[in-house]
Known about the structure:
With 338 residues, the protein is an alpha+beta fold. It is built from 8 helices and 12 strands. The protein has helices at residues 98-107, 152-158, 166-185, 241-244, 252-267, 276-285, 301-313, 324-336, and strands spanning 43-44, 47-48, 62-71, 74-81, 84-92, 122-126, 138-145, 150-151, 188-189, 198-200, 206-208, 215-216. It has a 5-stranded antiparallel β-sheet with strand order 3-4-5-7-6, covered by helices on one side. The protein has a 3-stranded antiparallel β-sheet with strand order 8-10-11. Strands 1-2 form a two-stranded antiparallel sheet. The protein is globular. It has 2 domains: 7-145, Phosphorylase Kinase, domain 1 (2-Layer Sandwich); 150-336, Transferase(Phosphotransferase) domain 1 (Transferase(Phosphotransferase), domain 1), CATH 1.10.510. The model is unreliable at 1-50 (pLDDT under 50).
Amino acid sequence: MPSPVPPTRVLSKDIYPSVDIGTCSSPLSKHSFGSTLQVPTQRHHGKVASRLWSSVIYWKELHGVQPVGSGGFGSVYKAKYRGETVALKKVKKCTKNKLASRQSFWAELNAAHLRHRNVVRVIAATTCMPTDFGDERSIGTIVMEYVGSRNLQQIIYGCAEEPLPPERWVKHSLDIARGLQFLHSHKIVHLDIKPANVLVSAEDVCKIADFGCSVQLDTKREASEVVPMSHAGGTYTHRAPELLKGEGVSEKSDIFSFGITMWQMITREQPYAGDRQHVLYAVVAHNLRPDLEDQDAFRSQRGGFCRTLLSRCWDAEARSRFSARDLITQLEQLQAEL
Length: 338
C-alpha cells in the first residue's frame, strides 16, 4: 500500500488549505501509519490549478523499470508510469549519517510544487516501497519527468567531437540562469549547481535537477540576509567561499556555482588542479578561481565580456555578485551579439 509524503515538509499551508493532513508517514518520524493524503493543489486568482504532484506512487502502474545509474544518493531508473516515460529515483539511507540522508530526501522535494521549463518536474513521491522493489537501505522513491540520458557534464567532457560553440553554451547558460531565477523567486536555493546536476533534453534544453542539498529560505527574511546551513552538502569545486567558511547561505551562493559551471562550458576543462584540502583553503584564503588569464577563449572582445561576467559571479563578497535576474540580462546581451 502506498505511503504518502506529507506536503507540510515542502508546501506552505496556504497552498492547500482544504487538505486534511491526518496521520502520515515521514522519514523523520519513528512510526509509519500508511494513511493517504489528498494530492495538494494550488490556487491561482481564486481558481484551483491542476494537480502538480502526487503524494502516493501507484506501483501497479509502474512498468519496464530499467536501471540507468547509481551513486552515493542511491539509484536512478527509467520506467513507464501511467503511460508516461519517467525517471525513478530511489534514495539510499546513509549508514554513517542517517539524519543527513533523510534531510536530503526531503530537500529533493523542495521544488516539487513548482513548474518551470528549466527545472526537472516531480510527478510523485513516497517513503514506502513494495518488497520486490524497496529494501531496508532505502528512504523513499521519487518519480520525475524523464529528461533524457545526458547531463551537461557528459556533454562538456564525455565527447570532444560534440560541438559546444558560443551559441550553444550561451543558450545553456541562459537556461540555467532562468531556472535559478525562478527557484530564487520562490526562495529556494539549490546549493549544488554543477554540470552533472544539469540534465539536457533531446531538444537541447537544460533542466536543473538533484535538489538533495537545496534549502527553502524563510520568506520573512530580507533578500540580502543569509541563513545558517542546516546540513553540509554540495560539491567543493563549485561551493561558494561563504559556505566553505560556514557563514550561511543565500541565493548568491548559487550564482557562484553557476560561474564555475559556465567557465567549464566555455573551456571544457576542470576548474581546479590539486588535492581537495588545498583547493578549499585557496578558494577561501587566496581567492583561488578558475583561470581567466591563460585561456584563449577569454582574449577576444566576447571573451573580455565573459571574463568580467564570471569575475562578478564568483566575487568573494556574496552581495557583489549578480542576481539571477541580472545574470539573465547580461547573457541575453551576449546572445544578441553572437
